[in-house]
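Exercise 7b. Backbone tokens:
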């Protein structure tokens, strides 16, 4: 058996399809595996002719570029299967030697993964949340249509990068958002969860709940991919603000109420321990207030209370607080280094 025949037999035994082509991409020779797939065509024959029609233009562009580099690599469909084509120009020759490796199984898995991605993204979209999908190390991020429209944008309005919406996060919320994200990246929390404000296209701020999870890490444990949702919680935040206001603010005068004053006293005592500030507490009530209510009516009495509250507020030094306890009773807290003298001034208000 000649060396040439022996070498051809070895190439026929390989699991890959082996081929030789000229600079124009015409097949000049092929091993038995490729010949069987192509039904033993007459040679020479253009390789592009045997590719799926949707891959031919991409092949032409890639083959042309390969002439400058001397190497060719591309995935395309041949004979109904996906193959990885790899070729090298032979030394001191215009001819190319290449192989086809079957990647049909890998492609099928990738298709199933993409379909699975689309299914869970659709499920999240149907829940009313906007979906984000962040490829961390690549620096790209997918935003669903619902996510974009949550802020008044349309697809294509913003770049597909994490910076696109990080830059629209309220400055007061950035530090906590970064901390919560870093905690999850480091594995200190099983899920990422953060509430922050995002600047919408119309210039208004929206409160959102962002939740997510790292679903892929590299060999060193660093995050590769993280997916999650944005939920609009603006209405909830407004309601919480109203509840907080009602729980801590006197509805008639707008002053802090008894509960709010207690919280402020606790903070002032803590500061006094650390800094040694003086504290003064004054209890103020109105003489003959009951007679005003009885003779002139509650509307006049309420107006008088509002006026008194305003005068006390006007004479309040920095660090001072005036609160309404109820009825005609007020309490003044002065937490300054000149508390005693400040109390005297407020007393003449």
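Sequence design result:
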């Amino acid at each position: 058996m000649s060396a040439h025949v022996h070498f051809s037999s070895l190439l026929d035994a390989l699991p890959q399809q082996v081929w030789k082509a000229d600079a124009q991409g015409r097949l000049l020779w092929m091993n038995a595996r490729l010949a069987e797939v192509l039904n033993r065509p007459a040679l020479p024959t253009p390789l592009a002719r045997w590719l799926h029609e949707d891959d031919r233009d991409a092949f032409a562009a890639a083959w042309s570029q390969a002439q400058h580099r001397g190497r060719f690599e591309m995935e395309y469909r041949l004979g109904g299967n996906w193959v990885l084509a790899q070729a090298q120009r032979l030394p001191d020759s215009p001819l190319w030697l290449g192989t086809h490796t079957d990647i049909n199984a890998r492609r099928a898995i990738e298709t199933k993964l993409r379909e699975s991605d689309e299914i869970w993204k659709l499920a999240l979209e149907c829940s009313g949340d906007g979906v984000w999908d962040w490829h961390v190390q690549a620096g790209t991020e997918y935003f669903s249509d619902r996510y974009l429209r949550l802020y008044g944008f349309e697809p294509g309005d913003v770049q597909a990068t994490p910076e696109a919406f990080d830059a629209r996060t309220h400055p007061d919320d950035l530090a906590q958002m970064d901390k919560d994200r870093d905690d999850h990246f480091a594995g200190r929390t099983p899920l990422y969860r953060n509430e922050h404000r995002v600047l919408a296209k119309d210039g208004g701020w929206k409160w959102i709940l962002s939740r997510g999870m790292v679903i892929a890490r590299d060999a060193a444990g660093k995050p590769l991919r993280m997916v999650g949702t944005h939920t609009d919680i603006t209405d909830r935040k407004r309601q919480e603000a109203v509840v907080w206001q009602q729980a801590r603010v006197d509805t008639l005068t707008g002053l802090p109420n008894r509960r709010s004053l207690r919280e402020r006293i606790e903070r002032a005592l803590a500061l006094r321990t650390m800094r040694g500030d003086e504290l003064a507490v004054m209890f103020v009530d109105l003489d003959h207030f009951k007679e005003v209510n009885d003779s002139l009516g509650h509307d006049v009495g309420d107006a008088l209370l509002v006026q008194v509250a305003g005068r006390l507020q006007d004479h309040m030094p920095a660090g001072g607080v005036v609160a309404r306890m109820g009825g005609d009773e007020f309490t003044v807290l002065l937490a300054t280094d000149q508390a005693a003298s400040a109390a005297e001034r407020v007393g003449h208000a």
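Instructor comment: The longest strand covers residues 205-217. The mean pLDDT is 85.
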